[in-house]
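job 3f2a | input accepted
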Amino acid sequence: MPENTSLYKNMKVLYAEDEEGIRENISFVLSLFFKDVFVAKDGEEALYLFEEEKPDLLIFDICMPKMDGIEVLSKIRQSNKEIPIIVLTAHTDQSYLLRAIELNITRYLSKPFSKDTLLGAVKECILRLTKGKETINLGSSYVFDFLNKNLLFQNEIVLLSLHELKLLQVMSLEPHKTFTFEELIEEIWGWEIVTKEALKSLVKTLRKKLPHPLIKNVFGIGYTIETLQ
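job 3f2a | predicted structure (229 res):
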């Protein structure tokens, strides 16, 4: 997987698999990387979750009860031509596989497959999804480079502490979103017990390295970031 998990941590995945053991193992692995993992045990449930949850990535077993993966993906492609799709199957019938290819499948994995093989396929999909998001212009000659984890001012690196970097990564991905104090503390420090005052102090030091007024207070709630381009 890409090292910079901030690029895809807010993405949603829909995973469809009828075999319970495989479903539990793969869904657990996916949950380590993605914000939301929606799991379906058959084709009908997969189509319902796709329409309700609007995922960013699909990982589908072809052979499923009620409605097979090819039929589900055909319906999905009628409304969404671009969403990346990873197909998992033990199917060997060539005509069946050609039908899957016609649906613009991003990757095709034959069962059994290793965890590394799956994560490699997911990485390919993530790179497709994040294309064009490698950098963000913060304004006033400031640019944040997500791939290299650098803040640049006039193409020169601005030194950031680890916590400052995490804060900027999280907020830059969703400009204009209001992040609560609690959200940011969890994103930056995880399960550590950290006070709101520690977060405020971190924001204060980061602000000194950024164009003003990039990070704004939302009274009583938290902070938001606005690009100045």
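job 3f2a | The chain has two domains: 5-129, 135-225.
job 3f2a | closed
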